[in-house]
Amino acid sequence: MYNVLAWGIVYVTLIYFTPNIIHLNSTVVSVPEYYYLILGFVYVINDLLSFLMLIMLFSFFYQISDPRFGGTYMTLFNTLYFLGWFVPNTLVLKLVDITTFSKCSNDAQNLCSTPDLTSMCNTNGGSCNVYVDGYYITTAICTVIGLVWYGIFKNTLKSYQNLSVSHWMVYSRPLDIDEVHEPCITSSSPLPGLAMYALDQRSPLHGPHC
Question: How far apart, in Å, are the Cα atoms of 204 and each of 38, 74, 98, 164, 175?
Answer without folding.
Answer: 54, 28, 55, 11, 15
